[in-house]
């Protein structure tokens, strides 16, 4: 797994896990605020950036194991974890499989899987259709993906931010992206809703315009023993992009509570 470890010789490290159609560069514009207090660990999740997916047999639980291998290579006993959307699902896998390697966790606009068998199968079929669309015409898929209601609140973003996000999405390798969707999409992944048990301090974030993930965020409060849910005003799915100032402030304050 490709990673970038920015070691400032601080006592604690923050691991950032990016979302779908992205890579370790997704949080580059955020990390300067964290570097004042923390070391930074950025990874390319499988199928994105320089981390391969095609031809490798793995699950979302395997990804958690690979992250631990990265932590070992960097000689990190444990880290804070900030996971966005797909990266939040991977963060949940890390908490479930390797809880002792996690200090505190921030789950941004994410879920623990799909609890209903029929809905899970439906999502697998949707993601297969998406994977085929990616393989057939990636640029067209990106255009349609960007216009999903999930991202409608991004209309207020400045032109540079929109262009940077589009370029990051287009820089991914279509066959790798499609393969990742088949191997750890929301329908395919382990359903952690009925099995998750953790006493870790968790901050759950969702944007108020992202109604689905506001609902899921509230539901996660019933799963984690020591979780807090915060709904961020006037933003949608990608909080760290749409309002980086408030996102960084809330996350850093949460992480510093433990010091």
How many helix segments? 9
Can you tell me the overall shape?
globular
Main sheet record: 7 strands, mixed
Q: What pattern of helices and strands is seen along the backbone?
A: EEEHEHEHHHHEHEHH
Distance between the termini: 30 Å
| Backbone CA Rg | 17 Å
Given as residue ranges, the uncertain stretches (5+ residues, pLDDT < 50) are none
* Annotation, overall tally of beta strands: 7
Helix content: 40-55%
Mean pLDDT: 97
Secondary-structure content class: alpha/beta
Give the oligomeric state: single chain
For the largest sheet, list the strands in their spatial order.
1-3-2-4-5-6-7
Question: Strand portion, in percent?
Answer: 15-25%
List descriptors.
259 residues; alpha/beta; 9 helices; 7 strands
Explain this structure.
- The chain has 259 residues and is of the alpha/beta class.
- The protein is built from nine helices and seven strands, in the order βββαβαβααααβαβαα.
- Strands 1-3-2-4-5-6-7 form a seven-stranded mixed β-sheet, sandwiched between helices.
- α7 links the parallel β6 and β7.
- The longest helix has 20 residues.
- The chain is globular, with a radius of gyration of 17 Å.
- The two termini are 30 Å apart.
Give a brief outline of the structure.
The chain is α/β, with parallel strands linked by helices and 259 residues long.
List the SSEs and their pairings.
Elements: E1 3-6, E2 13-17, E3 39-43, H1 60-73, E4 79-84, H2 86-97, E5 102-108, H3 117-136, H4 138-146, H5 159-170, H6 174-184, E6 201-207, H7 211-220, E7 226-232, H8 239-242, H9 244-256
């Amino acid at each position: 797994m490709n990673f970038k470890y920015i070691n400032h010789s601080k006592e604690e490290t923050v691991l950032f896990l990016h979302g779908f159609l992205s890579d370790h560069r997704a949080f580059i514009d955020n990390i300067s605020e964290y570097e004042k207090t923390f070391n930074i660990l950025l990874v390319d999740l499988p199928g994105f950036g320089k981390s391969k997916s095609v031809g490798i047999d793995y699950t979302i639980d395997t990804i958690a194991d690979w992250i631990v291998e990265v932590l070992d290579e960097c000689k990190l006993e444990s880290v804070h974890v900030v996971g966005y959307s797909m990266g939040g699902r991977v963060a949940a896998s890390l908490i479930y499989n390797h809880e002792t390697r996690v200090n505190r966790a921030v789950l941004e606009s994410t879920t623990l899987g799909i609890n209903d068998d029929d809905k899970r199968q439906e999502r697998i079929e949707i993601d297969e259709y998406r994977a085929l669309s990616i393989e057939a015409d990636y640029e067209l898929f990106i255009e349609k993906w960007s216009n999903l209601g999930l991202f409608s609140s991004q209309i207020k973003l400045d032109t540079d931010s929109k262009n940077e996000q589009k370029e990051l999405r287009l820089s991914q390798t279509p066959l790798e992206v499609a393969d990742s969707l088949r191997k750890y999409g929301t329908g395919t992944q382990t359903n952690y809703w009925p099995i998750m048990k953790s006493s870790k301090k968790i901050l759950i974030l969702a944007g108020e315009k992202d109604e689905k993930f506001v609902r899921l965020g509230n539901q996660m409060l019933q799963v984690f023993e020591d979780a807090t849910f915060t709904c961020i005003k006037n933003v949608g799915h990608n909080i760290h992009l749409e309002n980086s100032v408030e996102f960084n402030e809330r996350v850093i304050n949460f992480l510093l509570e433990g010091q």
